[in-house]
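Hi Y.,

Following your request, here is the sequence exactly as I used it, all 155 residues.
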Amino acid sequence: MRSESKSSSRFQRIRGRKETLVRKYRNYRTQQIIMATEPKKLIVLISKGCHDRTQSANQSKALDWLKSRHVPYIIVNGNDVNQRERRNELFDISGTRGNYPQFFFEHKDGSMSFFNFEKLESLNETGGLPPEVLAQHPELETWDKIFSSVVESFE
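Below is the corresponding structure, written out as tokens. Let me know if you'd prefer a different format.
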């Protein structure tokens, strides 16, 4: 009788942990969906005069992708002394200094979220997947899902 009680108790603990993990995941996904659908502004942190070839090439690619898809964005030039304070605020958010480009969503409530060039590149690549693949994998983040709610201003 006692071993049945231990087994039942163990099963309840495992089930409780599973429910907690599922709840956390659902909350996370809900937050991602909200972030993808609510109006937000895109801030691109670059450095005009960047001497690192890879960073310079990544900046050019990123700006070309954004322009070609008509995504509005605000540029913060990390090399401009007049924008130094804003640059440092963005570095604090990303936790990375001197690596360009960096991308930030400014949400209507004033909160900020960061993503790096690799994430942008990944979004660019998922745009080339066939529609049937995207339909089978709704969890995939795509350019349209992430950037469709970007606005120039909150008005």
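The beta strands are 40-46, 74-77, 102-107, 112-116.

Thanks again,
Q.
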